[in-house]
Amino acid sequence: MGYENIIFAVENSIATITFNRPKALNALNHELIKEFSEAIGKISENEAIRVLVLTGSGEKSFVAGADITELATFNAFQAKKLSEMGHNTINKLQELPIPVIAAVNGFALGGGSEIALACDFIYASDKAKFGLPEITLGLIPGYGGTQRLPRLIGKNRAKELIFLGKMISASEAYEIGMVNKVVPSESLMEEVLKTAGMIASKGKVSIRAAKQAINSGMNSDLATGLKIEIDAFSLCFAGEDAREGTNAFLEKRKPEFKGALNK
Ligand code: DAK
Question: Which of 52, 91, 123, 188 yields a CA-CA distance of 20 to 30 A from 194?
Fold first, then answer.
């Protein structure tokens, strides 16, 4: 499938999806969500891809939310269809077994913030701005913002942001723990790709096991989470990487992780 609203590239086992409707600040219309969903499906079928990076085209915007021109024309049935497609897509994104990094290069508003929140972590340019302005449109966040934001930054801070619909800077987002790192805009992709490369060089099975244990555990009580960790830890020994990592330490050399399963 050729894409018109995203750019999908894979290099050195790192996939990058760039939201690409710069004239509308990369706002999410029906077509873009369809293409995004399709690309996520391709990534989940490709074992060679180790990390996914999401970013926005141009300097100004990551994603400026749902396409308001499209929203303004919806009836309830169309809203439900888009809602289901959007939720399925963001769930598919969150459930990818590989790490996903949001490289937020500008406005991440509404659905844009919500996509970033569904990633494993966010690096932001110093020009980025975050916000959930749905209240100002007579709506509430519809792509998981009321659920993922309070889990990340706490209930009361999330309520303040959502009730006011206000935008915050990258440094404010960093202070409240929404963003892991803020970097000068010109070095954002370099920094994100460096981190992605470092993750890609680690053991494939252990990275997946760690992601799965953290995500499943965060939706459980501590006792259940600790049981999840036991299973995920054991799973690491199904791959050759655990043997390679421990042997490399003992032999005082760098490990060469191949991600292969034990025969
Ligand atoms: N949709 C469509 N076009 C947009 C857009 C958007 N969200 N944001 C910007 N644009 C367009 C502008 O209309 C403008 O187009 P032209 O006039 O040049 O044709 C162009 O992008 C440049 O924007 P501005 O001229 O406004 O640029 P400024 O620098 O002055 O302002 C801004 C940048 C980001 C502050 C401003 O554009 C803005 O406030 N944009 C709207 C932000 C926003 O409210 N986004 C929507 C949030 S609500 C759902 C689930 C989720 C959602 C919906 C449904 N279901 C479950 C069904 C999500 C909702 C949202 O995301």
Answer: 91
